[in-house]
Write a structure and sequence with these properties.
2 domains, 10 helices, 3-stranded antiparallel β-sheet, 3 strands
């Protein structure tokens, strides 16, 4: 492989790395293409990108040498991370303003990738407080607050553990929802005077697929119909997994409706 081909391949790999980080972090199609186009321009290349929920294909042309390369990258499991999207969006503008070259862009992208998520315990506590707070907001009372906090904490913990083991996304959603609603229903059952509906309903809110459903709508509005349809079906399957888990809990605890 010549030096020119190696340079083109390195640029294509970098753009695929950026695309992958954006997609798995929850960016919509228009945002991904906007950021990639900024980096493509800065790297003095022309790119044709095909976006799929499971993989990216990029055909890159180096404007200086005329060399063309096509690369495919399989995407890792999706984990929403808006910090990654915001950071990549910022440096795409910064790269243009400060005229960054390939080496600087690659260094900054790797720094963002290594930054990762917030500390796990902080995420667990914050999400649990959010769900428990909604229980109070919906007049669930302090028993419901306690049940939802513990249920959400354990449900999200189970979901994260299964995600690390690379379980199917719908299975881990079912398992996390089943865990959180079972714990919440078990705790509430100790207090017969408390209506369990609020606690069970709010204990599963962390599993709601808001990002894929919102992204499906924005993709449809932007004209990316295939991507929008895939995201919609992805979100719908999550909803079915949540509904299946709640059906099991309603059967076990003889709950007529939520």
């Amino acid at each position: 492989m010549s030096d020119i081909e190696k340079i083109t391949n390195n640029k294509a790999d970098l753009l695929l790395q950026i695309s992958s980080m954006l997609m798995v972090s929850g960016a919509n199609t228009n945002r991904i293409l906007l950021i990639i186009n900024k980096f493509t321009k800065q790297l003095h290349t022309d790119a044709q990108v095909f976006i799929n929920h499971k993989a990216f294909i990029i055909s890159l042309t180096d404007k200086a040498s005329g060399n063309i390369t096509t690369h495919v990258k399989r995407l890792p499991p999706h984990t929403v991370n808006f910090n990654t999207i915001s950071a990549l969006s910022r440096i795409s503008v910064q790269a243009e303003l400060e005229d960054w070259d390939y080496d600087i862009i690659k260094l900054r992208v790797e720094e963002i990738e290594k930054a990762g998520h917030h500390p796990r315990i902080l995420t667990l506590i914050a999400v649990s407080f959010a769900g428990a707070g909604l229980a109070i907001l919906f007049n669930g009372g302090y028993y419901s607050f306690l049940a939802v906090f513990i249920g959400t904490f354990l449900g999200l913990f189970v979901k994260q553990e299964l995600h690390k083991k690379e379980f199917n996304a719908y299975i881990l959603t079912f398992a996390g929802t089943l865990t959180s609603s079972f714990v919440a229903a078990s705790i509430i059952s100790l207090f017969p005077e408390v209506d369990p509906n609020v606690a069970i309903a709010t204990s599963v809110l962390f599993s709601i697929p808001g990002v894929p459903l919102i992204n499906s709508f924005t993709d449809f509005m932007d004209g990316y119909f295939i991507s929008g349809l895939v995201r919609f079906m992805h979100g719908l399957l999550f909803v079915i997994a949540i509904a299946a888990a709640l059906f099991v809990i309603m059967y076990l605890f003889n709950i007529q409706h939520i």
